[in-house]
Specification:
elongated; mainly alpha; 178 residues
Length: 178
Amino acid sequence: MGATVASMVADASGWVSVPRAVQAGLVLATLFVLPVTWVAVHAVWALRGRAELFIAAKEHPRRRPTDRQLVNHLRNEHPLTPLWWMVSVLGGLGALCLGFALPFALADGALLAGVLLGTGLAVSLAALALAVPGIRRAARQGSEDEKRRAELWSLPTAVERRLMIPLLGAGDGAHLGA
């Protein structure tokens, strides 16, 4: 992100001439790659912790994990749910933007731009097609985790309330700030 801002400032102020392709690549990486990477790393961390807790429960069924471990790793929402939602939002935005731009590029006779926009549109639609079943699968796995947790450990009410808060902010996939 720092490199993106620095390249924009350097080019705008005239210190260094930065090619538009480099700037576009940096902006795309900042807007799309970094958030997806962050959510993926968080999901891997949560999945690893979740797996460790369930394995420990099988080996030591009488030892209940700490409240902190439960809140961090065993929510009623599966750890991959935010990743699937991010893919669906980015795919939807990409499909919307590219679908809107494609007819204009083809009307102007820009064949290469039309091919690139069409390819991006196909990728966005494929991401949407993958994300929707992923969201459903993650919701099903979250409810299975809730059942497993109920079978293994009884939870204090304060921890139960904190576990009911989904990772995305609202149970229907909406964001609290929306």
